[in-house]
Specification:
About 5% of the residues lie in helices and about 55% in strands. It is mostly beta strands. Strands 2-9-8-4-6 form a five-stranded mixed β-sheet. It has a five-stranded mixed β-sheet with strand order 11-18-17-13-15, with no helix packed on it. A five-stranded antiparallel β-sheet has the order 30-32-37-34-35, with no helix packed on it.
Length: about 575
């Protein structure tokens, strides 16, 4: 027997093919496949059985595991290596044995298991900085593994422009690190990247030197502000022993920045830098450059985090509900200000007016991180059934108008369905009764609202009704109550009694009929029917006996004695 990868090989080709499969790489939580081609080089039909052993034998499947080959016939066998998530990294062996009537061939396959998950962090520029001066360093975050990863980033010092990102296999993204080294020498910064497969720590040593004779700094390198907002950041420049002219510019147009100024020896300049934001939220990283004649350049990175201050958060306390026609509905909504400043919001509703603590409002004022509860009232038309949406919308009154809406989805049933009632009673009452008895009737609210029902009893057997335990019941949805009818069996004059339940507005109703069987008789009725029946039986007995005597030639006289009659004999 021999195996091949598409051409006929010698008997020992199995060893060659498996040797070629050595060094297979497999990832945790994955499946690796390889193909084997078996050829029967014997002159007779051979039946082969594949066997496996080794540390990885329980993870592997050989398909097929047995087969029969005619002389010269070739068979494809697929080897599946299913590596579990709990398998530790390392090298594992799989021993494959091909057994036939003519012998045994075996070989060991080795493959390396790894996590196949790797995220690398590398600086894009040489980490060189000036003491007490800002540094903006782009970092390349790359996914070198085989799976898509969600990566969280942290830094031991400075600020990262992005703290979390998602990278597909082979993708990379730039993340800026802004920091101000305070000491001359090597200042280590540790960047930690964490993902589902593990974490990595990258140490970046920032070589810090005395770059110039002047210093420049910002009072705040990370600024939070709202859309269409402004904030003041102080720019401080300290000159050295020589007077010189300083120049300023920025990579962003969001500043009111002076163009140049002259500073005397050792003079300190403090300038209010006004930073503006647009109506778009997000993070930007403008750079402010300060340079002096013959004294070099200082770059000051500034991270601007523009948050969605004007977008309110509106949440309906009830997302969906069942409602009924003709109802007065009240639903509640929470409105929240997530921003940094006091906001005024206009509030409207698809249902009409909006209320706060029972007072109608058209607008509300909320401090930062404050929330308020508003209510919306709506009258459902009596003839309406189907779906209905009630919404509340809050819109910020500002240069950057933002709107948020939340909705309650209703399914409206007709008022008849909402108050539906069900009556259940024994349909036929029969039997012999000597005293008053009770018949239970179960009244059940099968609607969706608490309802009161009136009970009305009618029918041909009303003269037998002695009383009803209740003529009015109030039930919650799904609740039931038993009402008892008391009847007198000695006054049965009809065949049925009907019980009806009506909602208070007569829109919902149901009925139950109680029939009385033929065997339902009083003492008087029983004896009244028994006497004529007994007389009839007695007469039948007498008639039968009389007929028998007549046939025998006798009769009975009035005294009860038998009278015999002889026929006269004819004389000869």
């Amino acid at each position: 027997m021999m195996i091949s990868t598409g051409k006929v090989l010698s008997l020992f080709s199995l060893l060659i093919l498996l040797s070629g499969a050595r060094g297979l790489e497999a990832c945790q939580c994955s499946t690796v496949t390889t193909e084997l081609y078996f050829t029967n080089d014997e002159s007779t039909v051979q039946h082969y059985t594949l066997q496996k052993s080794g540390l990885a034998s329980t993870w592997s499947t050989l398909t097929p595991s047995t087969f029969t080959l005619d002389p010269g016939e070739t068979k494809l066998v697929v080897v599946f290596l299913r590596v579990g998530c709990s398998v530790e990294e390392g090298v594992y062996d799989l021993v494959v044995k091909a057994v036939s009537e003519d012998g045994l061939i075996s070989e060991s396959v080795s493959f390396e298991v790894s996590s196949c998950r790797s995220v690398a962090v590398k600086p894009e520029i040489e980490p060189v900085a000036c003491v007490n001066q800002g540094l903006l360093m782009p970092l390349n975050i790359s996914n070198d593994g085989d799976y898509s990863e969600s990566v969280n980033l942290t830094s031991s010092s400075g600020n990262l422009s992005i703290s979390s990102l998602t990278l597909d296999s082979g993708d990379s993204q730039l993340v800026n690190l802004s920091l101000v080294p305070r000491e001359v020498g090597l200042n280590p910064v540790i960047i930690t990247a964490s993902w589902s497969g593990g974490d990595s720590r990258s140490v970046i040593s920032v070589n810090t030197t005395e770059c110039s004779a002047f210093t420049a700094s910002l009072s705040n390198g990370y600024v939070n502000l709202c859309e269409s907002d402004e904030v003041v950041v102080k720019l401080t420049v300290t000159n050295d022993e020589e007077g010189k002219r300083f120049f300023f510019n920025s990579s962003s147009l969001l500043f009111d920045l002076l163009s140049n100024t002259y500073l005397e020896p050792n003079e300190v300049m403090v300038e209010d830098l006004v930073v503006y934001s647009s109506c778009e939220s997000g993070v930007s990283e403008p750079v402010i450059r300060v340079w002096a004649e013959g004294a070099g350049v200082v770059e000051l990175p500034l991270v601007l985090n523009v948050k969605g201050c004007y977008l309110p958060i509106v949440v309906a306390r009830t997302q969906s509900d069942l409602a009924c026609a003709c109802e007065e509905l009240v639903y509640y909504f929470d409105v929240y200000n997530p921003g940094f400043k006091e906001m005024i919001y206009a509030v409207t509703s698809s249902a009409g007016s909006v209320y706060h603590d029972g007072v109608r409002v058209d607008s509300i004022t909320l401090d930062p991180d404050e929330s308020i509860t508003l209510s919306v009232n709506h009258s459902v038309p009596c003839g309406y059934s189907g779906s209905l949406n009630l919404s509340l919308t809050a819109t910020s009154i500002s240069a950057c108008s933002k709107t948020s809406t939340s909705m309650v989805k209703l399914m409206v049933d007709s008022w008849t369905d909402c108050q539906a009632v069900s009556l259940q009673a024994q349909p036929v009452v029969s039997g012999f009764n000597e005293s008053p008895f009770t018949v239970p009737v179960n009244v059940r609210n099968i609607g969706v609202r608490p309802t009161s029902y009136n009970l009305v009893v009618t029918g041909s057997a009303m003269s037998n009704l002695l009383g009803v335990s209740k003529s009015f019941v109030t039930l919650n949805p799904g609740e039931s109550e038993v009402v008892e009818l008391t009847l007198d069996p000695e006054r049965i004059t009809g065949s049925f009694i009907s019980v009806q339940a009506f909602s208070t507005d007569n829109l919902a109703s149901d009925s139950a009929v109680i029939n009385f069987g033929e065997s339902f008789l009083s003492d008087y009725d029983f004896y009244f029917l028994l006497i004529p029946s007994a007389v009839t039986v007695l007469l039948i007995i007498l008639l039968v006996r009389s007929n028998l005597f007549n046939k025998s030639g006798g009769s009975i006289n009035s005294s009860g004695k038998e009278i015999k009659i002889k026929k006269a004999e004819r004389k000869k």
